[in-house]
Amino acid sequence: MTERSRSALARGPDWLRIGPSALHWTGEALAIDICETTFPIPSRFRGRVTVRPRALVMLPFALDRERRHLWQPVATRADVEVAMRHPPLRWTGSGYFDSNFGAEPLEQGFSIWQWTRAHAGAREHVFYEGTRRDGSRFALALGFDRGGAVTEVELPAEHRLPRTAWLMPRLTRADAGADVRVRRTWEDTPFYARSALATRLFGEAGDAVHESLSLDRLASPVVRLMLPYRMPRVIG
Q1: Would residue 184 count as lying in a domain?
Q2: CA spacing 20 to 30 A to 116: which of 68, 144, 172, 194?
Q3: Which residues form the domain of 189?
């Protein structure tokens, strides 16, 4: 990821370009062309990721009463193909695509949130909860069938996960008494963690991806000073 200025952004009805990288919708798939330089050790990172949704969910959900922050689970299940030229990597698998958008920065609206997307049996489930900046809490518990139809489900029991190396708190939802395990932590930063879980939901074993995001930490001046060493910035 590279932070870029406004002049590096261009978009149309079915495409988005940020610097030398771009996304475009072909009518049946999202093609993501990546042309970046790795950081902190510079090397070329080039290739394409193709996301083919099995169903589209065109329903946004408000995360606050004023609808300043919206979340949309665009594709709760998709077939993904990764074809990188530099480095030479290829694989295919199952994936997911969603979007957060709104009228103000996330750290102005929230202090922390927890997010879980799980696949168990024939359905996908998403649990999205957190604390707003005014101290109130929000929680979404949704189930999706193979056609993308969405239904509200009962919020399962709370399960506390081990903190990360940066002491990020992690919370997910699963059946009461279930053995929920962190299989792997893919990303561990001072304000954000992303992990793979083994879980059990509504009586079925499954796999899940979990995110924990602290907006209080993200807004911290110390973290702001650290970000350029994690994510390069291009001015102009």
Answers
A1: yes
A2: 68
A3: 105-231
Cβ neighbours of residue 134 under 8 Å, at least 6 residues apart?
Answer: none
pLDDT digits (tens, 9 = 90+) for 9-26: 999 999 999 999 999 999
pTM of the complete model:
0.90
> SS3 sequence, 16-63?
EEECCEEEEECCCCEEEEEEEECCCCCCEEEEEEEEEECCCCCCCEEC
Assess if residue 91 is contained within a domain.
Answer: no
Distances (CA, A) of 172 to 9, 27, 86, 175, 185: 35, 35, 36, 10, 14
Q: Which residues contact 130 (CB under 8 A, 6 or more apart)?
A: 110, 111, 112, 113, 114, 137, 138, 213
Nearest CA among 195, 135, 196, 138 for reference residue 168: 195
Structure tokens at 201: 């939901």
Residue 83 lies in a domain: no
Closest CA to 128 of 204, 186, 58, 76: 76
Domain tally for the chain? 1
Tokens of 84: 């990188």
